[in-house]
């Protein structure tokens, strides 16, 4: 399975990706997570990316494409992977096609997780993430058993810097303008699948699995 996860900020790409990892044993390549790790580590790349991320804008294609190409060359990607939050615009999608062709690979699917706009703000302002294992929680929808502590690994939960209302609004605009056109891009290639991303997370996951193995 070599797939791209598409969907607005807060649609549940990361949530479903974590379940796909557990189920299929393939790695998640989240450009957002890789960039946040670079910011936290204070690398030159992280310093360059931070101002874009804080504004809710896309980091430059050059930076992101370099990260993805390096990651796809790692051995664990031979058995498949989940691209989460990449590609983010048509230029990245076209560049990905070239990178994959050079590695002798192609995508097996692109899955769009669709959620009405009205639900996204609450999901994002309520999101809490584990510093240890990356597990996602939500103060409105899926609380951990103990406040601020991850059920899975006991790690500390944190709120993302870009999950502030003003930045979320910008991220949603950027999604509409730059990323939503990719739904058509993959439809034209004949590999687009769509799932409604509202309701019970496990129920959505069942539908995701059915779509992806079809
Ligand atoms: P990125 O980290 O990719 O963020 P995003 O696309 O804005 O998406 P999110 O991670 O916010 O949402 P998600 O769909 O993963 O939702 P989640 O599962 O967490 O990118 C961040 C920034 O990095 C960008 O703005 C940009 O600056 C930069 N960047 C990243 N990639 C880039 C690229 N390729 N090019 C350029 N720049 C790039 O769920 C959200 C919440 O909802 C959670 O609390 C979860 O518990 C809850 N939830 C999930 N499912 C449900 C459900 N069914 N019902 C109720 N709640 C649910
Ligand atoms: Mg995510």
How does this model look, in words?
With 214 residues, this protein is α/β, with parallel strands linked by helices. The strands form 2 sheets. Strands 2-3-1-4-8 form a 5-stranded parallel β-sheet, sandwiched between helices. It has a 3-stranded antiparallel β-sheet with strand order 6-5-7. It has helices at residues 13-24, 31-41, 44-55, 61-72, 90-102, 117-125, 165-179, 181-188, 201-213, and strands spanning 2-6, 28-30, 81-84, 109-114, 127-130, 136-138, 157-158, 192-196. A hairpin with a 5-residue loop joins strand 5 and strand 6 (136-138). Helix content is 49%, strand content 15%. Helix 1 (13-24) crosses helix 9, helix 2 crosses helix 3 (44-55) and helix 4 (61-72) packs parallel to helix 5. Bound molecules: BIS(adenosine)-5'-pentaphosphate and magnesium ion. BIS(adenosine)-5'-pentaphosphate (AP5) is lined by residues 7, 9-15, 31-32, 35, 52-53, 56-59, 64, 85-86, 88, 92, 123-124, 126-127, 136-138, 141-142, 162, 171, 197-199, 201, 204.
């Amino acid at each position: 399975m070599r797939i791209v996860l598409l969907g607005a900020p807060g649609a549940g790409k990361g949530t479903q990706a974590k379940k796909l990892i557990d189920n299929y044993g393939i790695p998640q390549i989240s450009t957002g997570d890789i960039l946040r790790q670079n910011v936290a580590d204070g690398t030159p790349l992280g310093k360059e990316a931070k101002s874009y991320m804080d504004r809710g804008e896309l980091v430059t294609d050059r930076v992101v494409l370099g990260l993805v190409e390096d990651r796809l060359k790692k051995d664990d990607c031979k058995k498949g992977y989940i691209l989460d939050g990449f590609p983010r615009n048509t230029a990245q999608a076209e560049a990905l096609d070239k990178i994959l062709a050079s590695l002798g690979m192609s995508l097996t699917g692109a899955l769009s997780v669709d959620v009405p706009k009205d639900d996204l703000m609450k999901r994002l302002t309520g999101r809490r993430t584990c510093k240890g294992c990356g597990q996602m929680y939500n103060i409105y929808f899926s609380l951990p058993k103990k406040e601020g502590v991850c059920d899975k690994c006991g790690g500390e939960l944190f709120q993302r810097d870009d999950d502030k209302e003003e930045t979320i609004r910008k991220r949603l605009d950027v999604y509409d303008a730059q990323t939503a056109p990719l739904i058509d891009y993959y439809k034209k290639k004949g590999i687009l699948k769509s799932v409604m991303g509202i309701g019970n997370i496990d129920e959505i996951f069942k539908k995701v699995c059915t779509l992806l193995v079809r």
